[in-house]
Design brief:
CATH topology of the largest domain: FAD/NAD(P)-binding domain
Distance between the termini: 38 Å
Low-confidence stretches: 457-461
Number of domains: 2
Bound molecules: flavin-adenine dinucleotide
Mean pLDDT: 96
Largest sheet: 8 strands, mixed
Structural class: alpha/beta
Strand content: 15-25%
Number of strands: 19
CATH architecture of the largest domain: 3-Layer(bba) Sandwich
Oligomer: single chain
Shape: elongated
CATH superfamily of the largest domain: FAD/NAD(P)-binding domain
Helix content: 25-40%
């Protein structure tokens, strides 16, 4: 395939957080950049998030007196993944996480503030940074504006179909279709930033069979293209069973924030019984819920638990959908949600006994510092859903794609959902924020790595 006159130092495939951060870093180094995005309006999974990006040791944290460090963050990542991830990569990402937040905010106008009203499971301290509106839509819009302002060429409606490589694996030309017309562009380096494979049910069935029937709530573009291209070029893959699950309101399939659970909310199945430690992590809770009769459960909470959720637009959509039930008493709640009163009362009593320190929670949840729920009680029926996949192409700390023998492919980089994440081989390893973290940080690594490969010194530090 001949690219004709069209070429760029770096061709980036996908305009989510990973691709746009790669574009920013490559432009800073003076490279010419073309980003090819299949959708007319770039959004990706990035726009579907709450924009919660973890970063350790930022000035936003220091301003609020929060002591954090890359070591503490690394420890949290490794603990959640039960040690089953690449510690070397995790260390590099944790170290670069705080600087990446400040880089986007200070240099590129991608605004963040610290989310410090509620501590999410698995994080030792408050380290989520969020856009003002607490939406990924704002984050994606800001990233896109920044990439354009930095001089990246963004081609939308461009579905990449082929990578054309020389015998040594060097990708020389990228083939794509634009409004039905076949196009090609030559490249010095390629960044795969196409997201994961959650939208391809056959790949999900192969690697995550337990979630094959689950509702998929991610972006339609996560069709596993990077995985297919990488494998064809001889790349190694890792952790293909890793993913982020979540609970969604049954029916409208809207994400139900875990903020409802953190201050003492809990879940019961349709027999009125609790079934797990809800604070192990929201990702693994999705499959716990799917294992319950009917594949659903009720998240039960009160007005105090609801307070932090009200700061998220997503939760307002759940309220507007009519999915939330309200009841003045436990008896009324049991009747409204259709579970046996006695069993629901017993669940409330067990939680109360754990809060009061009378008996330990039988599922091992730590109820220290949690208050008992008080009426009016609220409840939403939830179902386990697949949000995004975490496995992908093996990369090094420059985001270069690796072969099984550890050698790097000549000019191929991967970031975000296209690359292997930091969450190990299953849902239990997903520490909240791992998704945007590896999109932003590995994206930046990829842009810088491409610059190093192509011999451009970074113009600014
Ligand atoms: C509902 C939801 C909530 C989430 N909340 C959070 C959160 O708060 N914090 C967090 O850390 N993570 C969260 N995640 C995970 C997070 O969204 C992802 O990990 C992250 O956005 C990945 O970024 P990315 O750039 O790799 O992929 P994406 O943002 O999905 O971007 C990939 C882009 O590539 C394009 N593309 C794909 N194939 C091609 C092709 N062949 N040619 C051209 N373009 C292509 C797609 O259209 C897409 O625009 C959430 C996910 C979901 C679904």
């Amino acid at each position: 395939m001949i690219a004709g006159d069209d070429k760029a130092d770096v061709v980036i495939i996908g305009a989510g957080a990973a691709g746009l951060c790669a574009a920013l870093a490559a432009r800073e180094a003076g490279l010419s950049v073309t980003v090819l995005e299949r959708d007319a309006e770039p959004a990706g999974n990035t726009a579907m998030t709450l924009g919660m990006l973890p970063g350790a040791g930022t000035r936003f944290q220091r301003e609020k007196g929060i002591e954090d460090s890359p070591e503490l963050f690394l420890a949290d990542i490794m603990k959640k993944a039960k040690g089953k991830t690449d510690e070397h990569l995790a260390r590099a990402v944790a170290q670069a996480s705080g600087p990446a937040v400040e880089w986007l905010h200070d240099r590129h106008g991608v605004h963040f503030e610290l989310l410090d009203d509620i501590l999410y499971p698995g994080h030792a301290v408050h380290r989520y940074h969020v856009p003002k509106s607490r939406t990924g839509v704002e984050m994606e819009a800001n990233l896109l504006a920044a990439a354009k302002a930095a001089g990246a060429r963004i081609v939308t409606g461009a579905l990449v179909q082929n990578l054309f490589a020389a015998e040594d694996g060097r990708v020389e030309v990228v083939g794509y279709s634009l409004n039905g017309e076949d196009k090609a562009i030559g490249a010095g380096a390629i960044v795969l930033a196409t997201g994961g494979y959650g939208a391809d049910t056959s790949i999900v069935a192969q690697h995550i069979p337990g979630m094959a029937e689950a509702v998929y709530c991610g972006h339609h573009g996560s069709t596993g293209d990077a995985l297919r291209w990488g494998e064809a070029l001889g790349a190694a893959t890792a952790d293909l069973g890793g993913y982020q699950g979540h609970c969604v309101a049954d029916g409208p399939n809207l994400p139900v924030t875990w903020a409802l659970v953190i201050r003492g909310g809990f879940q019961v199945n349709n027999t009125g019984k609790r079934f797990s430690n809800e604070m192990s992590g929201y990702s693994e809770q999705a499959s716990e819920v799917l294992d319950q009769p009917g594949g659903t459960a009720w998240t039960i909470y009160d007005k105090r638990c609801e307070e932090p959720a009200l700061t998220f637009q997503d939760y307002h959509r759940v309220l507007e959908s009519g999915s939330v039930m309200t009841a003045e008493s436990i008896g009324e709640l049991a009747a409204k949600i259709g579970v046996p009163h006695e069993a629901l009362q017993a669940s409330f009593d067990q939680v109360r006994a754990a809060i009061d320190g009378v008996t330990a929670d039988r599922f091992g949840r730590d109820f220290t510092d949690v208050s008992p729920l008080e009426g009016p009680f609220l409840a939403v029926r939830v179902r386990g859903a697949l949000f995004h996949t975490q496995g992908g192409l093996m990369v090094d700390t420059s985001a270069r794609v690796l072969r099984p023998d550890g050698s790097a492919l000549p000019n191929l980089f991967a970031a975000g959902g296209a690359a292997r994440g930091l969450s190990g081989p299953a849902s239990y390893g997903y520490l909240g924020g791992n998704g945007l973290l590896t999109a932003v940080v590995l994206g930046r690594f990829a842009g810088e790595g491409a610059a190093a490969l192509l011999g451009h010194a970074r113009q600014t530090k």
